[in-house]
Write a structure and sequence with these properties.
The protein is an all-alpha fold and about 70 residues long. The chain contains two helices and no strands. The longest helix is centred in the middle third of the chain and has 19 residues, at about 30-50.
């Protein structure tokens, strides 16, 4: 074990290991997802029917797509 400190040796002794980062694959069906969008759509329609404006914003985190190598650290 290179760059060994007492804390690192103790963690190693307790069987802790460093692992490379893994990209999670999100997606699949989530039943509550349609409910969220239906609520937003119904609310926007109600505002528009009353003559009020409805705004749409994209506030999700942007990530680079694909399986990119992220090796972590040693």
């Amino acid at each position: 074990m290179h760059n060994s400190t007492p804390a690192l040796r103790a963690l190693h002794h307790l069987d802790y290991r460093l692992h490379a980062n893994r990209k999670t694959h999100e997606g699949g069906d989530r039943p509550d997802r349609d409910v969220q969008f239906a609520h937003i759509n119904d609310t926007a329609r109600a505002f528009l029917a009353a003559g009020d404006p409805a705004l749409s914003m994209d506030a999700k985190k942007k990530e680079v797509g694909g399986d990119l190598k992220n090796p972590g650290r040693d």
